[in-house]
Specification:
Layout (H helix, E strand, L loop, with lengths): L1 H33 L2 H6 L6 H26 L4 H14 L3 E6 L2 E5 L1 H7 L3 H4 L13 H14 L5 E6 L5 E13 L2 E10 L1 H23 L3 E6 L4 E4 L1 H6 L4 H4 L4 H6 L9 H8 L3 E7 L4 E11 L5 E10 L1 H45 L5 H28 L6 E4 L1 H11 L1 H6 L2 E6 L7 E4 H23 L2 E9 L3 E8 L6 H4 L19 H11 L3 E6 L5 E8 L2
Parallel strand pairs: 12-14
Antiparallel strand pairs: 1-2, 1-5, 3-4, 4-5, 6-7, 6-10, 8-9, 9-10, 11-13, 14-15, 15-17, 16-17
Length: 550
């Protein structure tokens, strides 16, 4: 009778424990779904929501199993009854359950056998560490020691080698129990291979996304409603001379524009207002470039904009090309105007020259003859200018042929004779007599030399109302070199490295387009040569053109 009452009492206590455990499971799982425990625990880790839920629920199941075993160990029942209870609970568990004593498996439930692909007979008495992957054995040993010292319940993950040699991932919790009168380890085990594979795929996808994000040449960022960076790529970070991590949390306008508030044309402001993509193009003085900035809103679950994706492109070259086309169109118009003027002047000049020569051939006094000679000479000079205007206005298709550099330079200086005389500029030439011909376009080289000479004249006049220009040529063996040296103000060192950049000019506003030397550089480079500038402030400048000898 006493034994029956005792057994009934034990059964009642076990029932209560099981009910309490199930209630705990229910409460924890409900809590999991209500307060989003996975997010609290895992934060923003790249794990699918369904797998996070599985991991958390599994932890609860394992924990409840351990709690149940703990309470069983406290029951005042016999050893045999306790072992029977262990077997009963283990066999009914949906997770793998095992008991290890003296390093050997003493109990394995059907689910554990299924995971391991071993029979019960093969597992019982087997070294428990033999199934652990070689790379994880030390970690599992440390976990077991820590559990024995502090009876820890923390779940941990490790790799397992199956009977077939296949490797799987497992998560388990362990606790210390009394089994058969001796201390043992109870383990609750579950296969999480699919979850780990999903995590790895997500990790690889995230890594690929990060690599792509950082390899894009455009400046890309994500900016929240408060104008703070939440993500930036390496291109943007490099543009503002910072590291990507240093930009997170900083306001975009403070970093890029260096202002205390969003700039008036801010596309992010417009996207927040209009709730649609916006594109703006503007010059950013802090970066020294023209930018095209596009913003695309990111909407939250409530339909409100939470951030926007920024894509900023450097469109400076495109803007320069557009300006070059405008200037080229203007030059074409000037050429047409020059051609019209030249034709209008050509006929009267021909008449002046013809009648002057006719009168000179007649009987006139010496004084009149002298005056007529002046008239005829000046009319011929004017006709020469008209001829050059027509050559400038004529549409020219580049044609390379053997040309003599000395002849082109002499022609250029001839064209500039009048301007140099009235501007008090003296010219000295040292042209090599043995200069070989080079393969080049005559008119393009003429354009280069005229540009260099006009620039020299401008700066000498600005410096001291005149000056001295030295032009020299020489044969270096592999190249023909032409140098133009003036005694102007010279060029600052910081300007030298930008001298051939499009739209860079050291002239006053309105006095130059900044395209002349850039065009010269392009022409000489296309001819396989090079153009360089040598100068020091206050000591004039020398422009050197080198062209390969055929």
């Amino acid at each position: 009778m006493k034994l029956e009452i005792r057994q009934r009492s034990v059964a009642n206590r076990i029932t209560i424990i099981c009910i309490e455990s199930l209630v705990l499971v229910a409460l924890l799982i409900v809590a999991n779904h209500v307060i989003d425990i996975p997010s609290m625990i895992f934060g923003t880790a790249p794990v699918p929501a369904n797998w996070v839920g599985v991991s958390i629920d599994l932890f609860f199941i394992l924990a409840v199993g351990v709690f149940t075993v703990y309470w069983i160990s406290r029951l005042d029942i016999g050893r045999r009854q306790a072992e029977e209870l262990y077997h009963t609970l283990a066999n009914s568990s949906t997770v793998g359950v095992y008991i290890v004593q003296d390093g050997k498996f003493r109990l394995v439930n059907p689910q554990f056998q299924k995971y391991m692909d071993y029979t019960e007979e093969e597992l019982l008495g087997k070294d428990s560490l033999s199934i652990v992957h070689n790379g994880d054995r030390e970690m599992v040993k440390r976990s077991a020691i820590a559990m024995l010292k502090r009876n820890r319940l923390d779940p941990y993950e490790f790799r397992v080698t199956l009977k077939s040699g296949k490797m799987i991932w497992a998560m388990e919790t362990v606790t210390s129990i009394n089994y058969g009168g001796k201390r043992a380890v109870l383990g609750n085990f579950m296969d999480i291979t699919e979850r780990k594979q999903a995590e790895e795929k997500l990790r690889q996808a995230a890594e690929e996304w990060r690599t792509t994000f950082d390899s894009i040449t455009e400046q890309i960022s994500i900016v929240d409603r408060d104008f703070r960076f939440t993500r930036v790529n390496k291109t943007l970070a490099a543009a503002v001379k910072m590291k990507p991590g240093e930009l997170i949390g900083k306001r975009c306008y403070e970093v890029v524009h260096r202002t205390e508030a969003p700039v008036p044309a801010c596309p992010h402001s417009r996207s927040l207002e209009l709730k649609q993509p916006v594109t703006r193009e503007f010059f950013e003085p802090n970066l020294g470039i023209y930018q095209e900035v596009s913003t695309s809103p990111i909407f939250g679950d409530s339909g409100e904009i939470v951030a926007s994706v920024h894509v900023a492109r450097d469109v400076s070259e495109r803007r320069k090309m557009q300006q070059q086309l405008v200037i080229a169109d203007r030059l074409a118009s000037i050429g047409e105007l020059a051609a019209g003027i030249a034709h209008e002047l050509n006929n009267p000049l021909t008449s002046v020259i013809g009648f002057s020569q006719l009168v000179l051939n007649g009987e006139v006094t010496d004084e009149v003859k002298k005056d007529l000679e002046v008239v005829c000479h000046e009319a011929q000079r004017a006709a020469h200018v008209v001829k050059n205007l027509l050559a400038f206005a004529r549409k020219h298709v580049p044609v390379k042929k053997l040309v003599n550099i000395n002849e082109i330079i002499e022609k250029v200086l001839d064209i500039r004779t009048y301007e140099q005389r009235v501007s008090n500029i003296k010219v000295a030439t040292h042209l090599a007599s043995d200069l070989p011909e080079v393969m080049a376009d005559y008119f393009q080289l003429q354009q280069v030399f005229i540009n260099i000479v006009i620039n020299a004249e401008y700066f000498m006049i600005e410096e001291h109302k005149g000056g001295f220009l030295t032009v020299a040529t020489e044969n270096t063996g592999n190249t023909v070199r032409a140098s133009f040296t003036d005694d102007g103000p010279g060029i600052a060192e910081e300007a030298l490295e930008h001298l051939f950049d499009p739209f860079f000019t050291t002239k006053e506003v309105g006095k130059g387009t900044g395209l002349g030397l850039s065009i010269c550089h392009g022409i000489i480079t296309e001819h396989g040569g090079r153009i360089i500038a040598e100068s020091k402030p206050g000591k004039g400048a020398t422009f050197v053109v080198e062209l390969p000898i055929v």
